UniProtKB/TrEMBL annotation:
<feature type="active site" description="Charge relay system">
    <location>
        <position position="353"/>
    </location>
</feature>
<dbReference type="GO" id="GO:0047372">
    <property type="term" value="F:monoacylglycerol lipase activity"/>
</dbReference>
<dbReference type="GO" id="GO:0008126">
    <property type="term" value="F:acetylesterase activity"/>
</dbReference>
<feature type="active site" description="Charge relay system">
    <location>
        <position position="327"/>
    </location>
</feature>
<protein>
    <recommendedName>
        <fullName>AB hydrolase-1 domain-containing protein</fullName>
    </recommendedName>
</protein>
<dbReference type="InterPro" id="IPR029058">
    <property type="entry name" value="AB_hydrolase_fold"/>
</dbReference>
<dbReference type="Pfam" id="PF00561">
    <property type="entry name" value="Abhydrolase_1"/>
</dbReference>
<feature type="domain" description="AB hydrolase-1">
    <location>
        <begin position="100"/>
        <end position="216"/>
    </location>
</feature>
<feature type="active site" description="Charge relay system">
    <location>
        <position position="186"/>
    </location>
</feature>
<dbReference type="InterPro" id="IPR012020">
    <property type="entry name" value="ABHD4"/>
</dbReference>
<comment type="similarity">
    <text>Belongs to the AB hydrolase superfamily. AB hydrolase 4 family.</text>
</comment>
<dbReference type="InterPro" id="IPR050960">
    <property type="entry name" value="AB_hydrolase_4_sf"/>
</dbReference>
<dbReference type="InterPro" id="IPR000073">
    <property type="entry name" value="AB_hydrolase_1"/>
</dbReference>
<dbReference type="GO" id="GO:0051792">
    <property type="term" value="P:medium-chain fatty acid biosynthetic process"/>
</dbReference>
<dbReference type="GO" id="GO:0051793">
    <property type="term" value="P:medium-chain fatty acid catabolic process"/>
</dbReference>
Amino acid sequence: MHFAPSPVYLSVRKSKGSAEAEKISLRDFVESRMPSLHLPFVPAWWLFNGHLQTVYSVLGDFSKIDNVVYQRHHLRLMDGGTLGLDFTPVDDENINPETPIIVVMHGLTGGSYESYVRAILAPACAPVEQGGLGYRAVVINFRGCAGTPITSPRLYSGGYTDDLRQSLFYLSTMFPKAPLLGIGFSLGANVLTRYLGEEGENSRLMSGCVLGCPWDLTLNNKNLLSTFIGRHVFAKGMGANLQNVVKRHASALSKEPDTLMAKCVTTALAIKKPRLDEIDNTITRFVGGTSPPFPFDSLDDYYIWASSHKALGDIRVPFLTLNSADDPIVRSAPTDSAGNGYVAICLTLGGGHLGWFEASDRIGRVKRWIKKPVLEWLRAFGEGVIHEGQRGLPLHEVDGFLKEVGRDDIGCKEVDDEAGFVVRTNKGQEGLLSGL
């Protein structure tokens, strides 16, 4: 665990439900409210290194555990794009309007179906009488991911934060009394970190927790490509995933054949067995967000801009990061908090990329160690920390779009096309490797 030398103090209830409060540093808060971080992570004996942990996260069968049922809402954005917001639990009419909401950002090409997402949400959103936290949650599915349609000539990227920002406009309006607690995985962790740094004290999220964040994308890509397995297994696995997302939506993206997007699609689909950086170089750096700053002159320019490690110093909400030292995909992680007392950095010796599998009580089975500290963090912020109302700048409606006062270029509204349908799946998307 790494903390800044100058502490930040939180206002915390002395006991659950108590009106009495005390000031406590983030370090003392983590040490007292997250006991699992003081216990060693011991990987299952047959998943003894980061490669095996990561491969199992991709190839393991998680279809029979952590069942989560979602209800989807579609958001239409001002640029014509669409986001798929998956809410759970579906039957939430009796939930207190002040109940915390977990806002989830998934990995590179994943979605709400991912096993690492469900591993957290299944217990977090289960009723209290069944041993859960009784929270709500919403997974923000990137454009084109998890069945979300592509309705504009634009994709998503690890550096583009406006889709998360607009989703939070909607959530803040829909649940004005509920504290919003952010969780990000891998690429989604990078987006979440950048959002919190950009917003600072205006963040609509009360706290943030990121797992497997790639941080410095330039350095991370260099390190990933420096090993045979990194270059030929993981980089190509992620490249194939992103290429398949583009392929799945090629017709929607190429409606106008003379556009930059259409040309990028043709180039990206022409690459055989692409690495992630090759797809990023042919399509992401051009159309992974709005112009400006897109398109970028080079891949390095995009990676430098999109990196999240430099945002740590600007975060102004309690923020926990979790990385594994043997992660074969994220090969470098910050070991300091940029002098920011809001940031707690945890680095485990093992766990791979979004794995952290330890032996289960059942012979031959494994469970995710990461559940324990993340649920402790969520419980502590839902029940222990005193939240002083909703955060963020005022919102208003303009021509049917929900916008932030003082900013006219982005906005969102809910649309009815297929909105509200129930998503029942514990399986990944066809043609894509899960767990990344």
